[in-house]
Write a structure and sequence with these properties.
heterodimer; A: 173 residues; alpha+beta; 2 domains; five-stranded mixed β-sheet; flat; B: 17 helices; 67% helix; CtaG/Cox11_dom_sf (chain A); copper (chain A); transmembrane helix (chain A)
């Protein structure tokens, strides 16, 4: 008996497997984004387009705390207007963050939200948020940026506290 | 040259087919034995280089406070120690063993793609050279740990990181080509009379490892390519300002990283499955369960990656899934350990050097496996994460696991490679020296980790001083043991007594039917069914 020859088909299989896996690494980027949106993984918050009606249980109270961080030498002072709110799931609330640009230059920034615990992220929905768009801060300007949100009643009953934090990053352009 | 009985008659016919003379032999060679040797010597050199870095790390950690180096340089040492050991020492050593042994074990004359084999080796010294040259660049070598998490490796890294990325690309190319070659050799060049379930376990474990390599290494290439474009071409895969996510880096990295740890241990399982039956003088217990266990471990290795990331903020459901999936790996691994122990049960055991290394592999690797289970428990990992407990865990599986099996394999097959016998007395001295010092080195690190000492930090608080001192002393002793190992191997090659074709009484396998020093070209005609059956582990 002769040893088998390496056929063209076998070659194609052998070489295409690594190429496909390389492509898969890139495919993980959109998969990851979609996965985080569906599951609230990594504290990704959701978004609602309209002020929809939820069943409201006035007796149920949740404490929402607001935090602010800046990264990479972001020159704008930034913080929540109120540190925390007691809310009822299913109702819409408005609060705001205040930012003050202390420099002589225009600064462009992008806020990235994160919710903890992560199991709450899926039910924390925003109608309006300064994090939806990049923000432009003119020199020495102080701005109040609004945030309108709802915590959906489907949230696990065991969760009594939610923290929402924003991290502001500087954009170059 | 079909069997051992007529090899001597045909040996001198091979004369004019012998290797070329001089340096060009090694540069141009397409012979699997030459390339295997090149891989082994390269891996050994890198082991000494990476070991020298480890000595620097342990010297700094000998006492609290900063003694010898700047913290930044310490970080460079830990990073390069990890990278060199994983990509320069352990992986090439296994590819070297695969090159040397797989064609002989499956009765093939050579690897299926010999020119590519030459190329995949000769990429390595350049990749290693590029990686090491970063030490001499402005800003120093990469200092972000061997896991190179973004944004530490993108936004905050030294310029030399781009050289590191290129080196990882080259190393990846080399590994993928090596894997393709092994798959093609095993599936196409295997002796026609050899069925898959006749194959020795080292061949099986390497075949499965090859599939892990072609599945995982391209993902690593993808991760470093994203780093490269993030750093230089304005993309934002891992940059939150541009809509990217640094946590995604960890997902991509560990999607490669977890199969990678099995890439480094499955061939070790194969080696031990050869040595233990030989010196227990019994057939391997549960051959087919060994094959299925290896395949199960390989499959599971792709779906547990996020157990490295329990602290990144994961929903409870995610933590539970990754915890249970991780625990599941203990089942096939337990099957293997059980089979090795059962093979020894009531065997006529003798304790030559390869067997000593193999038994201590089973014992010490199991310790590393158990600490791995502890780390896999999501709530407990909050305490253990990024402490010296992790360092102790992966050194037990990689040093007393992977490296142990490489040393065991070296002693076991050295007579076949050189035709000569090593000095058994010195080898035993070396074994006891290494096995005691390695435990003095790594065992106290469990306690340091449980007490909360973080990894990758050049200084520590005073309560960690005693265990660090003990660990460092063990480290220096373990490092010195490699001087003796070098001597034993060179002494064997130069002055060893001639070995017989089958120097181990209970050894089975086609490689032992060749001449004492395997001839340059072996199995030009494939072995017969009868011979394959006689030498099979599955009987």
């Amino acid at each position: 008996m002769e040893q088998k020859k390496i056929t063209k088909k076998f070659w194609i299989k052998l070489v295409s497997a690594p190429i496909l896996m390389f492509a898969f690494a890139y495919a993980m980027v959109p998969i990851y984004t979609v996965f985080c949106e569906i599951t609230g993984f990594n504290g990704t918050t959701g978004r609602v387009e309209t002020e929809q009606q939820y069943e409201v249980d006035e007796q149920r109270k949740i404490e929402v705390s607001f935090f602010a961080m800046t990264m990479g030498g972001f020159p704008v002072q930034f913080g929540p207007k109120v540190n925390s709110m007691t809310i009822v799931p299913g109702k819409f609330y408005t609060t705001s963050y205040i930012a003050k640009n202390n420099t002589d230059e225009t600064v462009i920034g992008q806020a990235i939200p994160s919710v903890a615990p992560t199991d709450a992220a899926l039910y924390f929905k925003k109608l309006e948020c300064f994090c939806f768009n990049r923000q432009i801060f003119k020199p020495h300007e102080e701005v109040e940026m609004t945030l309108r949100f709802v915590v959906e009643p489907e949230l696990d009953k065991r969760i009594k506290d939610i923290s929402l934090s924003y991290n502001f990053f500087k954009l170059e352009k | 040259m079909t069997t051992a009985t007529d090899t001597s008659a045909t040996a001198h016919d091979d004369h004019h087919h012998g290797p070329e003379k001089g340096l060009m032999r090694w540069i141009k060679t397409t012979n699997h034995k030459d390339i295997g040797s090149l891989y082994m010597w390269f891996a050994f050199t890198m082991l000494l280089v990476g070991g020298a870095f480890a000595m620097g790390i342990r010297a700094e950690l000998l006492q609290p406070g900063l003694q010898l180096m700047e913290p930044q340089f310490f970080n460079q040492l830990t990073t390069m120690h990890g990278l060199i050991m994983v990509f320069g020492a352990i992986m090439p050593a296994f590819v070297g063993l695969g090159n040397w042994l797989i064609p002989m074990m499956v009765g093939a004359p050579d690897m299926a793609l010999p020119r590519m084999n030459n190329w995949s080796f000769w990429i390595l010294p350049f990749a290693g050279g590029i990686l090491l040259s970063t030490f001499f660049m402005e800003g120093g070598a990469p200092a972000f740990g061997w896991t190179f998490y973004a944004p530490l490796s993108t936004t905050f890294a030294p310029d030399s990181t781009d050289f590191f990325i290129f080196a990882v690309h080259l190393l990846g190319f080399s590994s993928i080509m090596g894997a393709i070659n092994i798959i093609a050799t095993v599936l196409n060049m295997r002796a026609p009379e050899m069925k898959l379930m006749d194959m020795p376990l080292f061949v099986w474990t390497w075949l499965i490892t090859s599939f892990l390599l072609i599945g995982a290494m391209p993902v690593l290439a993808g991760a470093v390519t994203m780093m490269l474009t993030d750093r230089n071409f304005g993309t934002a895969f891992f940059d939150a300002t541009g809509g990217g996510d640094p946590v995604m880096f960890q997902h991509i990295f560990w999607f490669f990283g977890h199969p990678e740890v099995y890439i480094m241990i499955l061939p070790a399982f194969g080696v031990v499955s050869h040595i233990i039956p030989t010196f227990a003088r019994k057939p391997l217990f549960g051959y087919s369960s060994m094959v299925y266990a290896t395949a199960s471990i390989a499959f599971l290795s792709y779906i547990v990656w996020a157990h490295h990331m329990f602290l990144t903020g994961m929903p409870v459901a995610g933590e539970l899934y990754f915890m249970y999936a991780t625990m599941l790996i203990a089942v096939p691994t337990g099957v293997k350990v059980f089979n090795w122990v059962s093979t020894m049960w009531r065997g006529s055991m003798t304790f030559e050097a390869p067997m000593l290394w193999a038994i201590s592999f089973v014992f010490l690797f199991t310790i590393g496996g158990f600490s791995g289970l502890m780390l896999g428990i999501a709530p407990a990992d909050i305490q253990y994460h990024d402490t010296y407990f992790v360092v102790a865990h992966f050194h037990y599986v990689l040093v007393t696991g992977a490296l142990w099996s490489i040393i065991a394999a070296t002693f076991y097959w050295l007579p076949k490679w050189t035709g000569k016998m090593y000095n058994e007395k010195l080898a035993k001295v070396h074994f006891w020296w290494a096995v005691i010092s390695v435990n003095v080195l790594f065992f106290p690190q469990h306690f340091l980790g449980l007490a909360g000492m973080p990894r990758r930090i050049p200084d520590y608080s005073l309560q960690f001083a005693d265990f660090n001192f003990i660990s460092s002393i063990g480290g220096f002793a373990f490092g010195a043991s490699f001087i003796l190992l070098t001597y034993i191997v060179i002494d064997c090659i130069r002055n060893g007594k001639p070995a017989s074709a089958r120097p181990w009484e209970g050894a089975k396998g086609l490689e032992w039917t060749l001449e004492p020093k395997a001839q340059y070209h072996s199995f030009n005609t494939p072995p017969s069914r009868k011979l394959i059956e006689a030498e099979s582990q599955n009987s």
